[in-house]
Structures are given as structure tokens and as C-alpha cells.
Amino acid sequence: MVRVRHVALCVVILCAGCRALAQGAASPDALMRQAQAQFDVGHGREAVSLYDAAAKAFAAAGDLRAQTRALQQSGETSKLMGEPAKATPSLAQALALDPSLVAHIDATAAGLAAR
């Protein structure tokens, strides 16, 4: 009987966790992993959406370094998809948060200008 209650409790906890994820309570780090997974299988638009969501979540948590990384990944992914209008704002925001990215983002901007 104790074992049945333990299993039932585990099921309730797992269901609550799944429900929280389904309601958008995924951690920003989980969003970044999901974005990378989408990128890896060629789903660029989904990756950009997930990177953008992660950037917002990191901003809400006050993690500027991770927010910058998410914005940069979003911009880089948009650039690779041939969407400079989508890439530029993300990369500009990342640069505003971390000016040390200027060399990398300048190289990205040069790639955008060449298109």
C-alpha cells in the first residue's frame, strides 16, 4: 500500500512538472537547449523564437550575460537564415548589453551587408 502511494505521489509531481512546462514555465536555460536542438535539425524559425523567449526570461531574471548570449544566438540564427531585418535588432541589443562583442558583431554585420 505504501508503494502504491509513493508511485501515485511521483505521478502527481511529474504531472505538475509537465503542466508547468506546458504553461511556459520552462527555465531560460531549457529554452536555450531547446533552441539549439531546433537549430541543429534545421528549424531556424523555431530556434529564433526560443532564443528570443530565453532572452526575455534571462532579462526578467536579471542575467544580462545570458540575455546577451541569447540575443546574439537569435541574431546569428536569423543571419544564417538570410533574414538581416530580423538579425540586426537582436545583434544591436546584444552589442548594447556587451560592447566587447563589437568585433564579432562587426563581422556579422559585414556578412549581412554582403547579402
Extended strand count? 0
CATH superfamily: Tetratricopeptide repeat domain
Largest sheet: none
Overall helicity: over 70%
Verbal overview:
This protein has about 120 residues and is an all-alpha fold. The protein has one domain (about 25-115): Alpha Horseshoe (Serine Threonine Protein Phosphatase 5, Tetratricopeptide repeat). The protein has six helices and no strands. It has helices spanning about 1-20, 30-40, 45-60, 65-80, 85-95, 100-115. The longest helix has 21 residues, at about 1-20. The protein is flat, with a radius of gyration of 18 Å. The N and C termini lie far apart (about 65 Å).
Topology:
Layout: H1 2-22, H2 28-40, H3 44-61, H4 64-80, H5 84-97, H6 102-113
Helix pairs in contact: 2-3, 3-4, 4-5, 5-6
Features:
6 helices; Serine Threonine Protein Phosphatase 5, Tetratricopeptide repeat; 115 residues; single chain; mainly alpha
Summarize the structure.
The protein is mostly helical. The protein is 83% helix and 0% strand.
